[in-house]
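User: Please run a holo structure prediction.
Assistant: Happy to. Please share the sequence and the ligand.
User: Here you go; the ligand is zinc ion.
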Amino acid sequence: MPADTQHYLDAMQRFAADLVAIRRDIHHHPELGFAENRTSDLVAERLEAWGFQVERGIGKTGLVGQLRCGDGPKRLGLRADMDALPIEERTGLPHSSCHPGVMHACGHDGHTAMLLGAARYLAQTRRFNGTLNLIFQPAEENFGGARRMLDEGLFERYPCDSVFAMHNMPGYPTGKLVFRDGAMMASSDYVTVTVTGVGGHGSSPHHGRDSVVAAASIVMALQTLVSRNVSPFDLGVVTVGAIHGGAASNVIPEKVTLEISVRAMSAEVRALLEQRIKELIDGQSRSFGVQAEVEYRRGYPVLINTPRETQFARETALALLGPDEVIEQGAGRSGSEDFAYMLEECPGSYLFIGNGTGKSTPMLHNPRYDFNDEVLVRGAAYWACLTERFLA
Ligand SMILES: [Zn+2]
Ligand SMILES: [Zn+2]
């Protein structure tokens, strides 16, 4: 391990017990998106005690802690997410959720704790020159808390030259830091299709227009989009996750609805899928003589890491940990992340920190998942090191 950066890890190790306590406290009190009241209270109290200027209520429960040192003009943004998921926890751990049906199953408890660890260190040492903005966002899961913070003027009120974020990832060895140039997480769009035919008696299909048969044909035809329209070298996913219609075997229902999830790894594929889904459903419904209403809702965009910032983040990890602990160009993933909205407005990079491998490390959003406390010190030391290098 490089000697000149070892002090970050040594210093953070002295906070280890406190980091674990904070992480488990947040885990024990999980809160859903835009309801992170206790969590944001905890974060704000800590930041204020360490001398940060704190502004609450950006994106309802979101907050920013700012610390300035020296007269340097550079401005750095670091983001952590604070929300939990509507999952019934089944870890059986002493610090497991005290709220039935709500659980930190994505490790945002750990992300918040790691950024607080860095905040404490940086406030004590104050060895940087410039402006540090710590962004604690609400509602990363589904509700677009980052989007809402941006809509409420996050980067106008707290301009940043670059912004960085970290997410834990089961399946990578404990504490391994994983970087990627370009697209790292997929876009996520939602489509509701309402197929309307003419209902009637099941014995006399010729008097009706069968919405079930039309919907079934649409489901099958949708499977050709990724295989026949998207390049074999690009990622696309079209999943029909729900189909609802009918109530009895002898009734042809008037309406069937489909719920579809659409993922892509580039803006081009995303646009192509949207266009082709609409065209295909239009053509299919015409051929069956039914109506189809398509409600296409764009969710999180593709998360795209900018090259210069990713290289900087990667070099920081190499300086801190050496090459054995760093994956310089990891694989992209088909999940999505609303930090993508921040990267649309500010250059930056997103990285993974390994949560461990093997059967005993469940995947994210699993009811047996738990953030790996062993990585808290390393994650917090990484943020401290990155800050001092960026605001040198
Ligand atoms: Zn998640
Ligand atoms: Zn997450």
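The chain has a mean pLDDT of 97.
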